[in-house]
Structures are given as structure tokens and as C-alpha cells.
Amino acid sequence: MQIYKVGGAVRDRLLGKPVTDIDWVVVGATTKEMLAKGFRPVGADFPVFLHPKSGEEYALARTERKSGRGYGGFTFHASPEVTLEEDLIRRDLTINAMAEDDQQNLTDPYHGQRDLEARLLRHVSPAFAEDPLRVLRVARFAARYAALGFTVAPETLELMRQLSESGELEALTAERSWKEISRALMEDQPRVFIEVLRDCGALKVLMPEVDALFGVPQPEAHHPEIDTGAHTLSVLEQAARHKQPLTVRWACLLHDLGKGLTPEEEWPRHIAHEHKGLKLIKAVNERFKAPKDCQELALLVGKYHTHGHRALELKPSTLLELLQSFDVYRRPQRFEEFIAACEMDARGRKGLEQRSYPQAEYLRGAANAARTVAVQPLLEKGFKGPELGEAIKRERLKALKAYKEKA
Question: What's the whole-model pTM score?
């Protein structure tokens, strides 16, 4: 029995990056031997075990063969005869197909170290094209390591293009796709993830609503970058730069989908794009089964982001309607995330990345003004039921009028 550290732990050590998760592969062992040493089995599809003390995952060396469509369409074979090299060749990228023993002696049959030095994301073998999830994974690694100068090898991009055209991407489950998308959006350069997907044709398969934004012009006075797709990437870039949470980044990606529906004869104007985009945002949310908080914020930002930009001009009644839509009294955090998404949208424009956004403080002040309305005095006056609701609304409107006059 020989045990090796494999994959990301080896890659990140060689890059000088912190190692968080460690994967181990065991060569020359049987399930019976692992159980005898106290390892606990966890893998339903193939033999994976938890270490009796550390809890880390140890997998028996295995080979795989394509047997169906999609990410799960494989049959695995694990036995003591499977070599380390055979196990490593089934991995996605050369930089993830290295192993080291307990003395840090490197096993690198597919030249991962050379590709690390060349800053290349290159597939290990033609079997790469058998797993559609790898298109998303490579795009995610491109986003993660873009700051280090990594790019996708042309021949790997070509395989990703073939996968995108094959129909295999449609076999991916919503859960697996969302896991990769959400992780990629939380990288330091999530725009690279979208760019790589677009370069290989996967974006128009997975998110045709986002792909449709590229080449759609906007008024230059408000959008010096002109192209709606380029603007969306810049907004996403700002969200990453400002360390926004996943909810905000997802909303930033989807906020302008309605502009993709504008007839060419109406370009560069996009009248009512906010409302037109809601059905598209809903479709993307459902396609990937995004978490509820991501879905809700994306729809609200899509509908109201121009309200955010015009906050200082809004009538008190419109401002109150906005606050009610976000339920700022019970869910203040969601309104904060809306403000953040609006600010990222305002900054995601060529040459305007450092612009101030006074609307943010104004909206926070408005929310606080509305929240200060006390319910108890209204109850003491005898208001109840629907009448109480109307009375609260009147008092909040009064508070917002006073706030607007002072501001």
C-alpha cells in the first residue's frame, strides 16, 4: 500500500499558495485492507474512505470509462493493480495530475510542473472531452489563477468548444452547474470565468440570456464602454474588487438581461428593460436552482436598479414603495445588498470606476427614517387590521417627506 497526496494540494504548494483541502490516493490496496486499518467508507460510486483520525478523504486508485451522458456517465474500476499514473491520467488538467509522497517526491507523468511554470491550463488526455463539467471547471480555474497570468491552452479551449457544440453541456445537472458557477463567481476575477465560457461557446448554451448582451449598444453618455456585455463584466469585476457576497455578484451578472430583448431599431435606448428582464432572470434562476436569497435579490435588483440610481429624484411615495418591496423593516440586509449591487452597477463603467455614489447613503437614510415610525402610538389610537396598515403607511410617508426635505 502506497499513499500519495494528489491534485490541488500539490498544485498549490508548488505555486506557493496556501493549501486548504488535501486529497489522498491509495495505490495497491483493497477495500478490505482499508477497513482493517479503521478507514470509514463514504463513496457510493467508487471507494472513498475517511481517515480514522484526521477525517480526510482517501480514495483507492481507479480508472474510469465513459458509459453515458453528462458528469455522472462513467463507470469506475478500482483494484490494487491500478497504478498511480493510470489514476492521474483520468484527471482534468495537467496541473491537477501531480502527486507526491510523504517525502515530497513529485510524480508528474503529464508535465504539470512545466505547465505551472508556463502558466497554462492544459488537459491531461483526450478523455477530457468525455466530461462536460470540465468546461465549467477550467473556466473557474482560469478565473482563480488569472492574476498569476494563467491562460487556457489553445488545444484545451478547442476541446471545450467541441464539448459546447456536442450537446453534452445540457446533460449537466442544475446542482453540479451551480456549484461550479457559484465558486467561480466568488473568485477574485469572476469576469474571466464568463469570458472563457464565451470564448468556447459554452455561455450561449448555459446562459444564452447573458451571451445575448454582447454586441448590444447602450447610450455612450451613461455607458462609455457602450457594449452591454462589456458593462456586465465590469460590474462583476467591481463586485469582486469590493468583496461582495455571492448574492450581490449573482444579481450583478443578471441585472441587465432585459437589454438583450431590445429590438435593434430601438438601440441604443432600452426602454423598460428592467421589467422585460424579469422573466429572463427568473429563467436563469430556475435553470441552475440558485439558492432562494440569490434568486430574490437578482429579481429585485433587475426590477429596481434604476430606482437606486435615481434615488435622489424619487418622490416620497415611490421611495416608500421601494422600501416596502424589499421589506426593509424585517430584512434590512437584503436592502443593503441591493444598494451594493446598484453601486457596483454605477461603477462598472469605463472610466467611472472611482465615482462616488451618494445614492447609497441617501437610501440608507430613507430606510432608517421609515423604520423610526413607531407602531405602538397607532395601536393606542385604536387602529387595527387593514386600518393599522394604512395608518403605518401614512406615517412612514410623512417621515420620508420630512427626510427628503432635510436631505
Answer: 0.93
